[in-house]
Amino acid sequence: MSPANRPTPDRWGRTVGVDNAPFRFLYERWFRVEWEGLEHVPRRGGALLVANHAGMMPVDGGIVSLGIQDETARPVYSLAHHGFFRFPFLGRMLAATGGVVGHPDNAHRLLTEDKQLVLVFPEGQKGPTKSPRHRYRLQRFGRGGFVETAMRAGVPIVPIALMGTEDTTPTVTTFRVAGQEVPLTLNTLLLGPILGPVLQVPAKIRARVLPPVHFEPGNGEASYPKSLLMDHAEAIRHQIQLELDHMLQRRESVVRG
Amino acid sequence: MKNILVTGASTPLARALLVWLRRVDGVEHLVGVEPHATSNWIDGVELVALPADHQDLVQLLCQFPIDTVIHCDLAPDRNGSRETPHEARVVETMRIGAALAHGDTSVRSWVLASSSDVYPVSSHAPLLHRESGDLDASETGLAASLREAEDYARDVATRRPHLNVAVMRLQQLVGEAVRSPMTALLRQPVLPRLAGFDPPIQMLAIRDAVRALSFAARLELAGVYNVASVGTTRMSEAIRTLGRLSVPLLPLETPPVLRGWVRRLRAPHVPDGMLPTLRYGHALDTGKLAAAGFDPEYDQAACLELFRKPGDDDASA
Description:
The complex is a heterodimer.
Chain A: H1 21-30, E1 34-36, E2 47-51, H2 60-72, E3 76-80, H3 90-96, E4 99-101, H4 104-112, E5 117-120, H5 145-153, E6 157-163, E7 171-177, E8 180-185, H6 186-198, E9 206-209, H7 226-250
Parallel strand pairs in A: 1-9, 2-5, 2-6, 3-4, 3-5
Antiparallel strand pairs in A: 6-9, 7-8
Helix pairs in contact in A: 4-5, 5-7
Chain B: E1 3-7, H1 12-22, E2 29-33, E3 41-42, E4 45-48, H2 54-62, E5 68-71, H3 76-79, H4 86-102, E6 109-115, H5 142-159, E7 164-170, E8 173-174, H6 181-186, E9 191-194, E10 200-201, E11 204-205, H7 206-218, E12 223-227, E13 233-234, H8 235-242, E14 246-249, H9 256-264, H10 275-280, H11 287-291, H12 300-305, H13 312-316
Parallel strand pairs in B: 1-2, 1-5, 2-4, 5-6, 6-7, 7-12, 8-11, 9-14
Antiparallel strand pairs in B: 3-4, 10-13
Helix pairs in contact in B: 1-7, 2-4, 4-5
């Protein structure tokens, strides 16, 4: 920790994002990430990136951030569960790589004032806790809050289908700790609590960006009808699900892709 | 803004405000209210005790007659004297509110100096609190008292449509005479920080606080407004700016038996109530007041300069 040459964090605490050598190794060699449709990521202005989610120590957020940062030179901020920020060092590390407390105000500010790309996993905790039987079956997309966030901010939603990320840490079972559903992964079971989350199944990861979904320009309404939000949320979920089904069909093996 | 009554007159905030108002054009009469006044004058301003009787209070407001009341006696941790329990200050606020709501006074503007302590400091909180955001839901303590007083002020505003009630939520006040948890933090010769945390922090220079209160009174603002000096800073940045050493501490409260010793030995410690701020940070969105036309003079770096003692420059060079 040398305070002298550490880059200055922005107001969200982000420094250089996930651009570091160990993560690059994971990205390029371990998971051999391949992208399609990166042209769909807006080059300017705010946009909400929406993807499917799984894994105990999720690499999916980092992979999306690094891929988009490399391609478009734009930083990506990810909305994360506030619980992570309670832990010393972990919270800071998360913020330094672009993690932001998942509060609607924060998302709105990032999208409107800062005009940034914001990544959200609407499955939330239901993602990492789904069993291998349910992988690539999208869970409930919350209450459509992410659609409301995009509509209020007047930005498009960019759906992203991630193949491979849901095989990196297969969930064996879940248990409740302090009211939170916590997954126990195969990796942790075999390799222990320290090595387990780090050493993940070297699944081939493919990421496909789908065309942006634009909404009617926000009419300044304070709130939108819940049914409208749910309709949009379901449509986007369905779109990602179709894409995942398609990618899953064409996949020959988990590791080779 | 011709005849102004300022409560909590002996607090650093109100004193600075009175000094400022004396030089404002068009101000004819200034009255300071202070229940435990030891003299009748403070900085050339007449001091009176807050009348215990409702009718006398109305009478006091009808003097001159008073057209503006600036209430500086609400947030105890922001103005130095912590002796009076904050419940008593809430009652005082309600009494003044009652006089304004019922009496035949000609007060047009009631400016209430509240505090950023109404907002929760937690991992759930957004980076910047907006006026419309969630408040700290604690049932007791400072936040509960402030909420109660603000609710009451809103009540008075509804009942008296001609009275403009401005609730000014002041961020952590800093300045020479100010004694608060924030100043107790930044005045330490070796600064404490929490290992593994680097929160965004925000201060309000007393001069900006005074200007904001005076601004609200002059424009007869109504509604709730956040007040802070420009921007936010980070704890690590603040430590670097002040050029002092820092010590990483565990996120634990100092046990009560050790508090006296820690202070006496000037050992780095987390002041009472500052633990959540040092973990998660605490900052306000001041866009609403800016949109009303208010420009703070200080930014966070300038606020930190207030904690530099003469000769500090040599030490850090």
